[in-house]
RNA sequence: GGAAAGGUGGCAGAGCGGUUUAAUGCGGCGGUCUUGAAAACCGUUGUGGGUCUAUGGCUCACCGUGAGUUCGAAUCUCACCCUUUCCGCCA
């Protein structure tokens, strides 16, 4: 959510942001108009309320019955006017909210301007230590040959885009989750285990609703929503709270499965386990002082890169352009790892500074000193790597000519073996 | 799923239609006293919106949430949510 005061005082800044993101700037005009209307109605109704409040007190003190009745009649009319204005106000506010709740964040000035992914900037590519397989097989062949991935049974259970991980495949995924959580804990994050279903308000606060309802799984009866990312519940851990200055920054990490309907991506990446309705992810998250969030973004990106390096991946860091960033973000880095089998760069992490955009929606504040005005915190989120893609990268990068997979060193304690061979 | 009790400021807790501007206590902050501290005493202490002559003034809203009754609602009515205890069921 943007500050309505900012929209009011610097509409051109907001307009340019919309244009740079490839959105229509007309909604801004609607917001400005509705905001003016809202304040006008508010002024009128508050004056009437003030009048009614004072006269009602008078009535309570009046001895004269006839005079009292006269005042009551008068106030009854004022009451009718107030409710008419309130009805109007509710309508205006709900229209206003419909517009403001989907206005995207204003990109950081350093975010490159561009309307689509072709304008993302590749900042650097880092060569990994993993062995370079000669004729790499894609994970869908490798995984089935070794019996690690069972596509048929996944489909039997749940339909297309679902799979079952078997034996060492399941263990490798669990090892990655455990390793990443341990690493992030060493990096300073506080691990939490979260609900995988959340309320509507929780999704609103994280910026997923109302705009992206189509991409979420939802039980209508109890209004429970499956989380599309751990970012959603973590954002709301401190919803409606005023945090103590000395508690900032707060760093969290969490493993959750993520559920996405992927309506927009239907027909895309259908082969293998790259994209599904359900996937696992370890997430990093920070609540920070506004003036520190730029620095923390770099730190969090570095933390995600550390995971890639520890796993020996060849990876590259991209900065997303205005048109490719999510609506909450001011600045985003994507990290992509090289998967030699399917011969493509896989996005395994997206690290964003969302400024006060989510804090405003979730109402998360802090105070610099006793008696000072409350301010919104900044929040940042980043994948501590998305799982199926990291799993793909391990399998494809560490495959050997005989069809076995070497377990990356940092995972061996968790997996319990150095090499994954067929039939084990 | 059933029964009962209950949701009021940072916390505890009163108020159950109009001197409530939400009592009182604790805690916090400032002060008096003191060599210093404690104690005692005095003062102060919520969030959000609107507006203006703007470090402040005026005003509106907020007592779980939403509707309703009334000139006036923390207080009355209805619905819902949540908490606690007990029973049932269950991993």
Please give a structural write-up.
It is built from 13 helices and 18 strands. The strands form 5 sheets. The chain has an 8-stranded mixed sheet with strand order 1-11-12-13-16-10-9-4, sandwiched between helices. It has a 3-stranded antiparallel sheet with strand order 5-7-6. α3 packs antiparallel against α4 and α7 crosses α12. It folds into 2 domains: 97 residues, Helix Hairpins, CATH 1.10.287.40; 304 residues, Bira Bifunctional Protein, Domain 2 (BirA Bifunctional Protein, domain 2, 2-Layer Sandwich). The model has no long low-confidence stretch (mean pLDDT 93). The protein starts with a helix and ends with a strand. The protein is of the alpha+beta class. The structure holds one RNA strand of 91 nucleotides.
Beta fraction of the residues?
15-25%
If you compute it from the alpha carbons, what radius of gyration comes out, rounded to the nearest whole angstrom?
A: 27 Å
Please name the fourth-level CATH homologous superfamily of the largest domain.
Answer: Bira Bifunctional Protein, Domain 2
What is the overall silhouette?
elongated
Return the CATH architecture of the largest domain: 2-Layer Sandwich
Span between N and C termini? 52 Å
- Which residues sit in consecutive blocks of at least 5 with pLDDT less than 50? none
Main structural class? alpha+beta
Number of domains: 2
**What's the quaternary structure here?**
single chain
If helices are DSSP runs of H or I spanning 4 or more residues, what is the number of helices?
A: 13
What is the CATH class designation of the largest domain?
Answer: Alpha Beta
The order of strands across the largest sheet is: 1-11-12-13-16-10-9-4
The share of residues in helices is: 40-55%
- Major beta sheet summary: 8 strands, mixed
Number of strands: 18
